[in-house]
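Tokens in:
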């Protein structure tokens, strides 16, 4: 059986580490994408046990899981503008704070709330660079209109989402300035903006002065940020050797026969493949010339020194040989005295996990 084992201790360590750095500023735990693969409910339960009372979702179903499992005293923020009346109604039933990111989305929320004689709680989203949801920071009159002209909308917060916090400090600074300018303009009109927030995990670490009234953290909970921190990775796949397979010199394993044994080899067949997320990475972007160039260089590098997937058996790192299949891979264990049933540890990004049970330990 294959399981993705999540260490409660390591996750707890990360949460406490982040709380220390947040220094009293509330953490809004982002639990989208099935809790970044760790499961909405078990992840949220652990977060709750560590005092987290603010959650961000991108689906009504995630909010439903929380509300139906006793999370009645937490704030839940929907991170997308929603225009569909049915979903809006469901979100209001679940007492979720909505995002309003345009005049149109304000109209949809106003209509849905008026239709049920309700007042929708919302945070406004300002688009400072991501270019998806959010008001143009220069459209102040539209932004002010949400506060003033909608009797079924109560705005309790305002936020933006940086697009380059992981890679471009200067741009992030400019985006923060644009956001701050909106806040100042609203304050000068006597408008209370409530909870202002802008940091995701990267910005949280890099720009403490941007923490404002809340920080939205997802990847950092899992210890997945692109620079050195005290955070720890929280999980790994545990499975077992299904079969041992002897190949003689010249024989191959896997589709396409891309690998051939130079000498007799002993292979362990492990029931983990790309379907489960093994050796799968985020889609590479090749829409700019410079990304294409980078792609060419990394292909040349791969040609000179082929990248190699590995797993761990009996505390030893072992090379995967041949093409990784949908559900299986073959591992060179020559001379290691490995037996069927021996335990195998595999590193997989939880974001890509498919078809593997998540188990907290
Ligand atoms: C996903 C998301 C986050 C969390 O980002 P991380 O980098 O994973 O911390 C924060 N805010 C918004 C709007 C998001 O969509």
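Residues out:
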């Amino acid at each position: 059986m294959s399981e993705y084992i999540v260490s409660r201790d390591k996750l707890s360590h990360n949460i406490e580490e982040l709380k220390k750095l947040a220094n009293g500023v509330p953490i809004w735990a982002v639990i989208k994408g099935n809790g970044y693969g760790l499961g909405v409910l078990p992840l949220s339960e652990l977060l709750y046990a560590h005092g987290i009372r603010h959650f961000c979702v991108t689906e009504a179903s995630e909010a439903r899981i929380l509300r139906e499992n006793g999370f009645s005293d937490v704030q839940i923020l929907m991170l997308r503008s929603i225009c569909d009346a049915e979903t809006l109604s469901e979100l209001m039933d679940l007492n979720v704070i909505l995002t309003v990111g345009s005049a149109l989305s304000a109209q949809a929320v106003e209509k849905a709330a008026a239709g049920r004689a309700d007042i929708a709680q919302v945070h406004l989203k300002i688009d400072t660079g991501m270019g998806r949801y959010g008001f143009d920071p220069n459209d102040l009159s539209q932004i002010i209109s949400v506060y003033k002209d909608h009797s079924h909308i109560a705005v309790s917060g305002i936020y933006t989402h940086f697009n380059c916090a992981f890679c471009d400090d200067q741009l992030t600074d400019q985006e923060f300035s644009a956001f701050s300018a909106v806040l100042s303009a609203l304050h000068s009109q006597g408008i209370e903006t409530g909870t202002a927030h802008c940091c995701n995990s990267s910005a949280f670490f890099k720009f403490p002065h941007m923490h404002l009234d809340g920080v939205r953290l997802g990847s950092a909970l899992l210890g997945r940020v692109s620079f050195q921190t005290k955070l720890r990775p929280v999980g790994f796949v545990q499975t077992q050797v299904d079969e041992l397979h002897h190949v003689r010199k010249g024989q191959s394993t896997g589709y396409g026969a891309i690998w051939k044994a130079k000498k007799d080899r002993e292979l362990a067949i492990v029931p983990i493949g790309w379907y489960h997320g093994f050796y799968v990475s985020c889609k590479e972007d090749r829409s700019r010339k410079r990304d294409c160039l980078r792609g060419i260089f990394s292909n040349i590098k791969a040609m000179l020194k082929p990248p190699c997937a590995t797993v761990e058996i009996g505390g030893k790192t072992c090379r995967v040989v041949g093409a990784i299949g949908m559900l299986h891979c073959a591992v060179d264990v020559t001379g290691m005295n490995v037996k069927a049933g021996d335990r195998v540890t595999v590193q997989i990004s939880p974001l890509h996990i498919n078809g593997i049970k998540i188990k907290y330990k």
